[in-house]
């Protein structure tokens, strides 16, 4: 590993200690490379002490947004505020931000304690206090027993903990995490997920912006999730809001599993392939096209309100549930059914139903999608 990214990550952690309780405000930030806009007018506020996940597919602009907050890329438009302070023109090392990047970026030739102390030394913290702050950061990340090891003597998960300890050692008001778990294997990742959740609870004053493409990570850790796609913010809300009431098709499909079915608004509800489903349609005019969003686990087997008959085209056993794929007039409906004693067979005709309040109508004036 070269020392350059390590130096950059640590430089971001230097800066003033007076930014606790600050919160982040990203105000109309646009970033372009060679006239190619990769972040388009981003408006986003992270409240003091809040954990905000930036969730989206690869290339959607998440890391660029993080780097704009850290000061590693310069926006062509917009401003970044930490608390009331406009930091847009400040270099990274003067923003008082702790940052953890994907590949840990530890100095290979320094021991763990020296890596963690580096940011403190660079910002000329009082010498007498450095050991105490290093010990505290290592304690918080469960690495107290590893202070004298070198990075090569640590597992990937342990190296990541050291990187987090280094970011925390300066007691930052703002912590930026860029896909902190993506380099770990699945088993380590779930352990670190619990570890990060604990850290978040122990840092109630630190505002955290956490970049991830993993919805489980975002749903587990974040107070709110900002959903990004193609350089733009598509949706923002609590995990529950985004899951239960997504405002866009993109959010519905990216946060949790969703059936998205094309329907036509009628006077009574909506029409799905010739079947009438009774549900509120808000302001939508009869005849308008829309998309019906219904989560697979909210669909029941058998008769009920909004019953739909169709042919089973596929069955997947998923442990706790069976996932049935049912053809409804040419559209495929996925239903996750629990405790099916006698699952139907492929080719059987079944009746499925769902409650109107569990469905969300998107598009064509019925939502913002
Ligand atoms: P994400 O973090 O969501 O995966 P990024 O913010 O890293 O996305 O990238 C957004 C877009 O910007 C991508 O298309 C990427 O190729 C492009 N990009 C990122 N950094 C640079 C760079 N230094 N020069 C040119 N293009 C870049």
Notes on the protein architecture:
With 369 residues, the chain is of the alpha+beta class. It folds into two domains: 3-20 and 45-62 and 91-244, P-loop containing nucleotide triphosphate hydrolases (Rossmann fold, 3-Layer(aba) Sandwich); 257-362, Nucleic acid-binding proteins (OB fold (Dihydrolipoamide Acetyltransferase, E2P)). It has nine helices and 20 strands. A hairpin with a 2-residue loop joins strand 1 (24-33) and strand 2. Helix 3 (112-122) packs parallel to helix 5 (156-169).
Number of strand segments: 20
Question: Percent of residues in helical segments?
Answer: 10-25%
Average pLDDT:
89
Number of contiguous helices: 9
What is the count of distinct domains?
2
Which ions and ligands are bound to the chains?
A: adenosine-5'-diphosphate
CA-based gyration radius: 24 Å
CATH topology of the largest domain: Rossmann fold
Distance between the termini: 44 Å
Spell the H/E element sequence.
HEEEHEEEHHHEHEHEEHHEEEEEEEEEE
